[in-house]
Amino acid sequence: MTTLAATDTRLQIGPMTLDVPVVLAPMAGITNTAFRRLCREFGAGLYVSEMITSRALVERTDGSMRLIKHHESETPRSIQLYGVDPKTVAEAVTMLVAEDRADHIDLNFGCPVPKVTRKGGGAALPWKLPLFREIVERAVQAAGDLPLTIKMRKGIDSDHLTYLEAARAAEGAGVAAIALHARTAAEFYSGHADWSAIAKLKQAVTSVPVLGNGDIWSGADAIRMVQETGCDGVVVGRGCLGRPWLFGDLAAAFRGQSDIAQPSLGTVAATLRRHAELLVDFFDGDEDHACRDIRKHVSWYFKGYPVGGELRAGLATVESLQQMDDLLAQLDWAQEYPGEAAEGPRGRAGTPKRPSLPEHWLDSHELGDAHRTELAEAELDNSGG
Prior knowledge:
This protein is α/β, with parallel strands linked by helices. Helix content is 38%, strand content 13%. The protein is built from 16 helices and twelve strands.
């Protein structure tokens, strides 16, 4: 496996120094405190919260207040915000800073979910460059000394790319780093990420780090992305689903080491159990809620392992930790790592589709009155990027 020299491992984002240039991508319903803590136990880097809607945070809804909580072991504390109104985004950032709830804030401009883009939010928003610029400028001002970064996609589709202009605007506004998921909204998560776009972005943005996102399934992939694009670090999303040990592989790769996790079935089972325990803690002791949440992770954890359908079905409908223990006890914990069958893509890729946009959205980069009304409805609790 090709590696980088140890001198290349540190990443500076504003005043914040990361030991390895690795960032956990925000994923809705996934990157809560429990999963972030689990990933930290295996590796190093920056672990970002689920995307939190600015409006909900300003209104201090129960859900948003839960999502901005960090365990005392989490340092630095990183929160991603989503918003479409410059004033509301700035208020949310001001709140996080004033109440000392974060050490880093990221803004999401990459959500491809149709019910967000059809209102002009997410990956559709950078098309309205003046609005994008105002949101970022006001957020940076509100953040003060706290590093504020952005994450975005290439654009709406291949005919409406926005990432280079938006990145230059963000760089001018004073962001501390820029992350690019090298797909358009139209591509969703399908096909292959266009790493050449990351290389172009790195050439266009020279004063702050550029981070690459898309198709990082292993430590070798991360090193290859850095070498092919010149990016300063990587952002990892679907590659770590059911594989929190990937962050150990990534840290080793960037440190020039060849260590690769090859967990036995017993190690996978114990990690799933640990994840469930952390979820119980996250949900304030609500074991039922934790078990309902862990179910979606089961297929990811056991991808490629010889686990029977009946047992998988039982774990995917588990109702208590005791029931989980009983089911896990039926596994052959000594079963060795299955190799390539457990590697590679995971999570739903979707298929390319025409993005849903407000009517006449692409007619102008300026924001009309009709679109302002639609944007007000765009702040939904959806994530992606």
